[in-house]
Amino acid sequence: MLDYGCGPGRIARLLAQEGYVVRGIDPSEMMIAEAGSQPLDGLRVDFEVNKSNGEDLASESLSAIICSSVIEFVPDAVTLLRNLNRALQADGVLILTYANKWSIWRAYSALRHGRSLRHLDAQHNVWSFRDARTMLIHAKFEISSGPVFFDAAPFDKRPNLRFLSSHPLVGILGLVTARKRQATVK
Predict the structure, then answer these.
(1) What 3-state DSSP class applies to 78?
(2) Can you give the pLDDT at residue 8?
């Protein structure tokens, strides 16, 4: 399993704790150093700096790829998605999160915090579900499930309001799972 854009490696470590063999890659040396500093004894997980857009991933070598909070920062999202598709085995799964274009919480945060939220300026791809589906189709994926929306921190912290984060107009992130589109037999 690949955690593409693993950052500090929390997702990769959690997956390894569940018994998966995980490779985490990220372009940031600082993030990989942070990932490697976690308690990893006995876990089948490794981390490496990788600045590619997926070109160097071996074809049909992975059973699953997680790309969480990454696609919005990639200048050429379709090329990355095509490379991830190529790297997946025939029955492989892509788990993708994307920045939700329609989130009113995202719009509110941008208005309230302005330029102090620099990550918003770095985002190249802020999508609706329709945009995400179109990009995945261009990369020869078919959506298996989703979208599921989440991550509106103030609501997540209050149990009686947590349901709001999952609303398509509130959740900052959308999550979909996809599989390689199977060739049709004529």
Answers:
(1) helix
(2) 97
- Supply φ then ψ for residue 68, to 5 degrees: -110, 120
Q: Give the Cα separation of 143 and 49 in Å (integer).
A: 29
Q: Over the stretch 6-38, which tens digit does the pLDDT of each residue have? A: 999 999 999 999 999 999 999 999 999 999 999
Cα 154 from Cα 164, distance rounded (Å): 10
d(CA 183, CA 60) in angstroms, rounded, equals: 15
The CA–CA distances, whole Å, from 185 to 85, 122, 141, 182 equal 20, 42, 17, 9
pTM of the model: 0.89
**CA–CA gap between residue 94 and residue 177 (Å, rounded):** 6
CB atoms within 10 A of CB 170: 22
User: How many Cβ atoms are within 10 Å of 105's Cβ, its own excluded?
Assistant: 20
The predicted structure's pLDDT at residue 123 = 78
Per CATH, the number for 2-100+123-150+173-180 is 3.40.50.150
